[in-house]
Amino acid sequence: MSKQHKEALALGREQGRAVRVYLEALELHKPKRGRKRTTETVKRQLAEVERKLASADPLNRVHLIQARMDLRRELEAKSETVDLAGLEKAFIKAAREYGQRKGISYAAWREAGVTPQTLKKAGIGRGA
């Protein structure tokens, strides 16, 4: 395998990683319907679950244990910060070439959650 071929493969992996990480971040931070759950609300629910666990029968106990696990996971997710701007910058750099190589249309990017502004910055137009 030539040096040029290895470099092309490395570039493809790098572009694919930038696109994947950005799309995953968009998915995780997609606005959800309804009222926003605050960290305080989740903590309050977690305390309530912990209180109920002490006197729960075995069947309710397993449901409460699962609820506790879900609430803890939600708290962890709320505390994680994602540099969406940095991920977007890497996506903008990689998306056009990656999309052309993989045959990804403007409509597909849009349906995946990428904003028109981001696609414009990446040089991807409706006719692309």
Provide tags for this entry.
single chain, 74% helix, 0% strand, mainly alpha, 128 residues
Overview of this structure, please?
The protein has 6 helices and no strands. It has 128 residues and is mainly alpha-helical. The chain folds into 2 domains: 75 residues; 49 residues. The mean pLDDT is 91.
Roughly what fraction of the amino acids lie in strands?
A: under 5%
Order of helices and strands: HHHHHH
Largest sheet: none
How many DSSP-defined strands? 0
Work out the radius of gyration: 21 Å
Number of helices: 6
The poorly predicted ranges are none
Mean pLDDT score, rounded?
A: 91
What is the domain total for the residues? 2
Bulk shape: elongated
| End-to-end distance | 32 Å
Helix content: over 70%
Structural class: mainly alpha
